Amino acid sequence: MAMVVGGMGAGDLAWWLGLVFGAAPLLCLAVWHSADAWYRAAFFLRHSGRRRLPPGHMGLPFLGETLSLLWHFKLARRPDAFIAGKRRAHGAGAGIYRTHLFGSPAVIVCTPAANKFVLQSADSFGVRWPMPELVGHTSVVNVEGASHARLRGFILAAINRPSSLQTISTVVQPRVVAALAAWADMGTIVAATEIKKVTFANICKMFISMEPSPLTCQIDRWFAGLVAGLRAFPLDFPGTAFHGARKCRRKLNAVFRQELEARRKVDKECDDLMSGLMHMEDEQGKKLSDEEVVDNIVSLVVAGYESTASAIMWATYHLAKSPVALAKLREENMALSESKAGSPLMITHDDLPKMKYTAKVVEETIRMANIAPMVHRVANKDVEYGGYMIPAGWSVLVWVRSLHTDPNFYHDPLTFNPDRWDEPAKPGTYQVFGGGYRICAGNMLARLQLTIMLHHLSIGYEWELLNPNAEIGYLPHPRPMDGAAMAF
């Protein structure tokens, strides 16, 4: 009588086992390579084999290498291993790799020379955020040409020139001082949360003349939802980060449009960024539309507080683990405070040149934080670089994080060491604010806010991390998983 296993003949069982352990892996292998083969074939047909795509792999159909990115950034919590894996698999070469991320075929560039080439080639590369509608199609981060130059010029004048920074330093410090006193009364804080509150309150005051209220608390939550979707996979159905971000963006649009209408009804004049945008005119006297004003307010608030709050949090984190650096910071700032007879608590823009060690702490914090690990561009045309072709229409990801964590450029790069800034960084290896004609317009504002917080922290307070070995999450921005909980 034939052997039967669970009602199945031995021959049938062998057939199924052969299918599972033979055909199934081959099918998976075929699926894995199908997208890459498709793009390579399309490229070959278009260029008749005369050009080469950068080395790399396009990953799975539709998903590309998004799952790999999420694995390295969210689960393994080893973000630098994503690029390191490409270098091992495809060689260092020109520092350029093909991939598929954020729903689009893409090229990653990750060397000083390649990054500089992309960031400074305005004719060849435009801006392309993964989901441009989230930051606003007409905002300064998305528009090109004359519109970008006009908006950027206004923003630089409003928040980045010395006279503006002097005014800002006067406006933000009372709230910072009050917040620090409140934290001391609380005893323990979650630094990421509390720093975000005070930074957001200051940005709301400077940009839209709003004082803390239930409405601004709600606006803060909507911005948090918006930021969570900026680097999410573009799946628009309930439950996804992208869907939630779009809902938050619609609510932000509504509340800021209401503010615009309210100002017009009472002819309200405010000395803030929103009013400045409302009154901007081009060479023909044309003002910005309401959509343009709202798009720019949303993008500037995101840039002005989310990244700055994150950098301040990382400064408190690293200084808590670096007693030598903290002692040097205290010494410099105590001396400065004691020299300011009559107003020991407040610093001005004129004090910044005296705060040399504080400036080194600021730069080291920003380098290690890597708040924006990549800069998004798109190839406007076929572009050759390093012997390879970047196809027109492909996204280009300028991977700045890889520069700041590379031991070839920074000795022991994952160690907090402000004294490394006794010498300037090697050319092209420090791109925390991007580069080229679109370098972050608020870079000096971010540095000023960080300097102000460091000054008042170091002259009056002590703090200690409750979980110094807490794991780090890296999306949407790097932060300790406990939010840098600390005794204050």
TrEMBL record:
Read off the Pfam families from this record.
Answer: p450
Q: In which pathway does it act?
A: Hormone biosynthesis; Plant hormone biosynthesis
Kindly state which keywords UniProt assigns to this record, in alphabetical order: Heme, Iron, Membrane, Metal-binding, Monooxygenase, Oxidoreductase, Transmembrane, Transmembrane helix
* GO-annotated molecular function: heme binding; iron ion binding; monooxygenase activity; oxidoreductase activity, acting on paired donors, with incorporation or reduction of molecular oxygen
Annotated GO biological processes are: brassinosteroid biosynthetic process; brassinosteroid homeostasis; sterol metabolic process
Q: Which PROSITE patterns match?
A: CYTOCHROME_P450
Query: What residue ranges are annotated as transmembrane?
Result: 13-32
Residues in coiled coil: none
* InterPro entries, sorted: Cyt_P450, Cyt_P450_B, Cyt_P450_CS, Cyt_P450_sf
Tell me where on the tree of life, at the top rank, the source sits: Eukaryota
What family name appears in the similarity comment? Belongs to the cytochrome P450 family.
Q: What is the protein name stated in its UniProt record?
A: Ent-kaurenoic acid oxidase 1
